[in-house]
Amino acid sequence: MSSSSRPDASLRRSGSVSPDRLAGTHRLTVPADRAGERLDRYLPEAVPGISRARAQRLIGEGNVRLAGEVMRPSTRLKGGESLVVVVPPPVPLELVPEDLPVRVLHEDAHFLVVEKPAGMVVHPAPGHPRGTLVNALLARADALSGIGGVSRPGIVHRLDRDTSGILVVARTDTAHRALSARFSAHKMERRYHGIVFGSPPRAAGTVTTRIGRHPVHRKKMAVLPAGGREAVTHYRRLETFGPFSLLEFRLETGRTHQVRVHCAYLGCPIVGDEVYGRSRKIPLGKGTSARAVTVSRFLLHAFHLAFPHPVTGEALSFTVPDPPEFAAFRASVEKAWGS
Description:
By secondary structure, this protein is of the alpha+beta class. It contains 8 helices and 17 strands. The radius of gyration is 22 Å and the shape is globular. The N and C termini lie far apart (70 Å). Residues 1-19 have low confidence and may be disordered.
């Protein structure tokens, strides 16, 4: 199967493209006026129905070629190139719907807003084939957007396994593309609460760095002197108790582990974060009265999300309280320090 550089007009009008119709070989000629644009930004417009995230995966899997050569997502186009884009046929979805407790904050024909509990993985991955948010949603929703692929239907953004809080999940491809575009343009208001060791250098500020894979520990992210992607986090200290602080974070970008990496960079890692901070067994108090408390997770919570409705444009805002673990830890600290 092949297609020309001009996608089917019916696909452009529909605003939603079936994965079956996307599958095949697409031969594209890059217009001259797209010179200088990144490849992964051009493809979603050239092949309707492909999100930028999926374009990046196709490129990374070697399915986008120029004169037989595999390309990179960051490749800058020159105009006039002839690209070959191979979109594999969809694999039948074999995820098992599971009746798992997930609080739904909003639900309509286009998307859902849910509160993910700590300890729940967002989508299936090696080592986590069941018990994920996707499994839970498949038991509740009659349809989810197919843009996220076989294992990530409807997933527009993610939270780490131990991060609790608000997530938006797309039901239609149209909503998925609109929401993804807002995330890419940094036009989703996302706020987190986190309890950290110590306190940042100032009561409020902005951290701007570049974040990418750690050069040695490839499962970790790190602040890099060059390369990576720009990451911007605004923070303010809400209060201090004992040697700990409660911070509020507002994300301008959404890089992997961004808040956790930036807290470690500031010298005040998230409590319970064994990857970027310290042990989950935390000593409290001084002298002979000192004792230790063990936290079951790192204390980071996505408490607020606001954005316009992807179809109607209505302003939407969602806020949830901090989970019980926050209050329990604070109570332990205040008891140990007598405050």
